[in-house]
């Protein structure tokens, strides 16, 4: 509780100096009654009584004002407390919403991790009927189907055969070696990303066609430029927004920014507006 609130609730006699002054005057006049007449003394006594009555009235008014002030302060404090309680309730609700979102995000991340670890389903190749010479039809499988069948045959190999059969062991080792070679020849998945760059010129007098030509002149292994457009910035200035597809292992955003900012005559800065994995 602050000092002002404490003083507002305390019943203090603010007009006591006036009462003391009136009492002093009363005794001074009493002491001087010997030199004045009886009528003069009565008039002085009446004035003193009036001063005392006036002082009492002022005291009562001041006490009534302090009581009303304390009640107003109590009302303000109750309003503040109610607002604090409502804010705490809203804060708890927001905390609950954030926790729910975190739980949902963690579940989503776990599902994505499981999907990334699980192998992608392989769609079997379609079987194409081919007419035969004697009027009947035979089913021809594609090369992909042959590879899948070979892989299934290799998976069905008995890797725990008898040690006494040396010929079977040699055949198994040879097939395992062939299977490993076929797996090694399969192309690895190349990670790619789609990047949207914001290339800003120096002013509204910059040749934007020349600027775009300079940007597209940047070449690198694993870099493919896409569409572009001019986006207004303000005061007649436009920025070049251009998209590109890069291979993550070969090209990065740092390399692009470094190469583009070399054209200092046209380019002021380069920012990455969007970055998405493909």
Descriptive account of the structure:
Helices cover 55% and strands 19% of the residues. The protein has 278 residues and is an alpha+beta fold. The strands form two sheets. Strands 4-5-3-6 form a four-stranded antiparallel beta sheet, with helices on one face. A two-stranded antiparallel sheet has the order 1-2. The radius of gyration is 48 Å and the shape is elongated.
Straight-line distance between termini: 62 Å
Strand content: 15-25%
Helix count from the secondary structure assignment: 7
Described by its quaternary structure, the protein is single chain
Q: What class do helices, strands and sheet pairing give?
A: alpha+beta
Helix and strand pattern: HHHEEHHEHEEHE
Mean pLDDT: 77
Widest sheet: strand ordering? 4-5-3-6
Would you identify the regions where 5 or more consecutive residues have pLDDT less than 50?
Answer: 127-145
Overall shape: it is elongated
Q: Measured on Cα atoms, how large is the radius of gyration? A: 48 Å
Main sheet?
4 strands, antiparallel
Helix content: 55-70%
What is the number of strand segments? 6
């Amino acid at each position: 509780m602050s000092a002002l609130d404490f003083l507002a609730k305390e019943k203090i006699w603010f007009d006591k100096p006036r009462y003391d002054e009136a009492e002093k005057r009363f005794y001074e006049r009493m002491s001087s009654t010997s030199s004045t007449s009886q009528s003069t003394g009565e008039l002085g006594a009446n004035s003193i009584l009036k001063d005392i009555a006036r002082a009492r009235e002022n005291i009562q008014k001041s006490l009534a004002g302090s009581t009303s002030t304390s009640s107003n302060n109590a009302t303000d404090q109750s309003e503040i407390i109610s607002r604090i309680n409502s804010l705490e309730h809203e804060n708890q609700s927001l905390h609950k919403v954030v926790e729910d979102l975190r739980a949902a995000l963690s579940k989503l991340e776990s599902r994505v991790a499981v999907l990334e670890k699980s192998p992608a389903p392989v769609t079997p190749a379609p079987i194409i009927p081919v007419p035969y010479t004697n009027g009947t039809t035979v089913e021809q499988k594609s090369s992909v189907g042959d590879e899948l069948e070979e892989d299934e045959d290799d998976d069905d190999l008995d890797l725990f055969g008898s040690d006494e059969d040396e010929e079977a062991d040699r055949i198994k080792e040879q097939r395992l070696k062939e299977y490993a070679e076929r797996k090694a020849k399969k192309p690895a998945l190349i990670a790619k990303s789609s990047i949207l760059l914001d290339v800003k010129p120096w002013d509204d007098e910059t040749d934007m066609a020349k600027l775009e030509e300079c940007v597209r002149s940047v070449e690198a292994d694993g870099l493919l430029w896409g569409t572009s457009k001019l986006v207004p910035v303000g005061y007649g200035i436009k920025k070049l927004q251009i998209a590109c597809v890069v291979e993550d292992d070969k090209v990065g955003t740092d390399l692009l920014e470094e190469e583009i900012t070399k054209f200092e005559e046209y380019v002021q800065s380069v920012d990455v507006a969007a970055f998405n994995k493909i």
